[in-house]
Amino acid sequence: MSNQSVQTVSTSNDKFKVALAVVAAIAGVVGFFYLKGLNKPALMSTGALVAGLLFAVLILWMSATGRDFLNFAKEAVRETKKVVWPTRKEATQITGIVFAFVVVMAMFLWGTDKILQFLLYDVILGWK
């Protein structure tokens, strides 16, 4: 088994693009709330948000780091679609089993606590 370390090489230009994308996304969010505070139409404030986020994604796509991240996000969505989700009946059964286990554990811990309380305070220390 090889223990080779993997290094990612990132240029300062890529770092600048990622920082610019973050600033664009923040500007979109700030623009949304600023326009909403001025009682502008909802379409205008939402447009500012969408424009800021689209501009951020566009800038990210132009950097190697951003492309890697966006490809990772697409792969994550693709993998999530492969998951076999339980049916409503299965989810209800599993939830019921979990609740039953919690109740049994709560009773066990309560009983253990009462037994230890009786042994320590009544039998060993003699406090009543």
Describe this structure in words.
Helix content is 79%, strand content 0%. It is mainly α. It is elongated and about 75 Å long. The chain has 2 domains: 10-83; 85-128. The protein has helices at residues 12-37, 42-61, 64-81, 88-124. The mean pLDDT is 88. Helix 1 (12-37) packs antiparallel against helix 2 and helix 2 packs across helix 3. It has 4 helices and no strands. This is Protein translocase subunit SecE. Belongs to the SecE/SEC61-gamma family. It is found in: Membrane.
In short:
This is Protein translocase subunit SecE. The protein is built from four helices and no strands.
Give the topology.
Elements: H1 12-37, H2 42-61, H3 64-81, H4 88-124
List keywords for this structure.
mainly alpha; membrane; elongated; 128 residues; 2 domains; 4 helices
Q: Please describe the biggest sheet, giving its number of strands, its sense, and whether it closes into a barrel.
A: none
Number of strands: 0
Q: What number of domains? A: 2
Mean pLDDT: 88
Number of helices: 4
Organism: Massilia agrisoli
Family: Belongs to the SecE/SEC61-gamma family.
Protein name: Protein translocase subunit SecE
InterPro entries: SecE_bac (IPR005807), SecE_sf (IPR038379), Translocase_SecE/Sec61-g (IPR001901)
